[in-house]
Amino acid sequence: MSLYTDYLDEIETRKAEGLHPKPIDDGALVQDLIAQISDTASPHRQDALKFFIYNTLPGTTSAAGVKAAFLKRIILGQDTVAEISPDFAFELLSHMKGGPSVQVLLDLALGDDAAIAAQAAGVLKTQVFLYEADTNRLAEAFRDGNAVAKDILESYARAEFFTKLPPVEDDIKVVTYVAAEGDISTDLLSPGNQAHSRSDRELHGKCMISEAAQQEIEALKAQHPDKRVMLIAEKGTMGVGSSRMSGVNNVALWTGKQASPYVPFVNIAPIVAGTNGISPIFLTTVDVTGGIGINLKNWVRKTGPDGTPILNNDGNPVLEQKFSVDTGTVLTINSRDKKLYDENGNELADVSASFTPQKLEFMKAGGSYAVVFGKKLQTFAAHTLGVEATPVFAPSKEVSHDGQGLTAVEKIFNANAVGATPGKTLHAGSDVRVRVNIVGSQDTTGLMTAQELEAMAATVISPTVDGAYQSGCHTASVWDKKAQANIPKLMSFMNNFGLITARDPKGVYHAMTDVIHKVLNDITVDDWSIIIGGDSHTRMSKGVAFGADSGTVALALATGEATMPIPESVKVTFKGTMQPHMDFRDVVHATQAQMLKQCGDNVFQGRVIEVHIGTLLADQAFTFTDWTAEMKAKASICISQDETLIESLEIAKSRIQIMIDKGMENPARTLHGLIEKADARIAQIRSGEKPALAPDANAKYFAEVVVDLDAIDEPMIADPDVNNADVSKRYTHDTIRPVSYYGGTKKVDLGFVGSCMVHKGDMKIVAQMLKNVEKAKGKVEFNAPLVVAAPTYNIIDELKAEGDWDILQKYSGFEFDDLFPKSTARTEYENILYLERPGCNLCMGNQEKAEKGDTVLATSTRLFQGRVVEDSAEKKGESLLASTPVVVLSAILGRTPSVAEYKEAVQGIDLTKFAPPVDKPAGAKSVHF
To answer: Against a cut of 0.70, is the pTM above it?
Structure first.
């Protein structure tokens, strides 16, 4: 009863906040509910009954286990509840999505009561979330001659769990809601500073866009009860910058359909659209929920009589509107014709890409998980029966071009393909199931990943995954009450599931808040690997990595697989010589600027950037691959030379060994296995058996970009251009400016060196610049705060050993202390150097932020509105992105430097160098790693 009274107290607290009772995941609380239900005289009985039926989470939660067991007793007549008949008990079991509910249904279906067995079999035929223990029971019962088991297997072989679902309606009537003009970051839909509430779906839903927007959406729904609200990015791309499942969950919460009447606040099937379509990662997340993502193309470039684009005074193409999607516009999406029509039936756009056979299956099934598990279940059943599976699902699209070579990503997908036609070479455009080698879960989406794993009834990591890691970097800055409540629970769940975890649930090894991308880059020990990570910056310099939503991460952990089309590739090569005063980050920025100049449009968007950068070791090459998320690329692949790759793998081995030495190894000896795999890969390269991954000479690319290093003579800055008259041009990563543009006069309120974009060399650059300043001026004075956050503890350990940390300490006014971590986020800054704990820090924006209205110059990857810095009443906050030396010098000066000031400041400093690969490597490599 005490748990129940505590729950009632929590309900009252939530009611005061305008919230409904929180969904129940605790089995002990459900036991209390059952006690109240069983006591017909209890004054709490009706409420307890309501909570039991409508507010208990399904899957593998302990609550689901207790609920399923009680429903079984009702069905067997061992308990009687007037309001829950045996038929209703079966219905409730049918909505519980696997785990304990499937175990109960199997108990009943394979039991002695024929009538109950038949009814249980009928429910089982609708279920798809079965795991090996469940399918083994069915197979064994079938071999023993059980007729019910045979009946169930025959249904599975025909995929009746899918074929008997209602089809997607032909005409989907929508009413538009323009969420914003320009690119819409997932931060607008699910702000980073509200990450702590993501697993509480109703509470988190209150942070989407604004309260006013939520009221406008509700008004549209009331005004158009027969239509669905379509959320739109006008003159922009929807869902850029992040892989946030919580963003799609929020959109679905306000505009989608309830997944089950017995599971609160889990909605599916949102409809989202953008003038320039949907960000690739975000679109995958929409598919997870069975939603629809539409490329409107409602603004097009205006052209002159000769067909060339007309430019405005800023040199940008003038756009003209093909059709209006202003808020309140009524449209019809026809899934059969795959067209978008206006209210009068006039065709506006072809939306075929939104209704491929595979996407239609996701919509019909209520999400992609059900299709993935359904296909596996059908294959199992057919194999067990010794029959051919009934053709039900759309065949995977297999594109093959005779005589055409393979790009790097095509090679990786072919090597890891599962279920493809044997011996068939697949090219871009093919739909492929692939084995996933490495999986990463990050801490602000991890609680949702855990929920997804529970919902799909998964209890242990797939044995085919080489390694998986749960990070603690996004909540590293501030160990506040929210982190203390969420993170230990997350680490315990993931550790039990089979991941290597940043924090030890037993508290033995020191918490490692290293940035997740850096750790994944180290534990990726094969350049032919496929990596899935719960963050858009899952971009490795070895293998090919895809940022993903929390659900796709859960699916990869549970099944060891992912399904996606093979993307097209853009080849990026380099020519010329890098100037000695330039840093490699400037090459990265220049790549974006030169690409736009060469191609006009962003050819990187939605494609793989195959960057031929093979003379750089993994950490420095990561600076490029990491940035490709901001280039709107789907992924990137670093083409490395043999000896460089070997050295990168040796470094990875040493870092994995450090993790082992810290005590982070698990019972499956995952980390030892990764070292063995690295040794095997090194042996393959050295023997010539399998050289470093490289594309074929006759591979076909969507485009090829050549970056001229000779043209880069001064530092480059990515500017959010917050005051651009064209709203759609603000907060994009396409405005790349030389530092001279600012004339040495742009005020800088704060500098930030940190996030996944920096490596050990950047930390050394900071130390060297401070020494230079003191030598030249006698002391170091900051005219703006400088926040420095190393990405990993390893880097700090090496800096301590080499003497650089002493220098940083000397000039710092604050240094993190792991024994006494900050419990509150910093809101004001002094003009000093802050040495912050390893982790994401300001880049994440969920804990630490700059002061409102600040102009921040950062090495970060994020310039979105409100992410690193929020607006003040007087001034827009802006986050400009630059190299480490530019950031440090700007913090010292309190403004952007002139080119002359910059060149003087970096004299004698070992910046990150790069020389384009040559046919025969000269052997020279950067010293930074």
So the answer is: yes
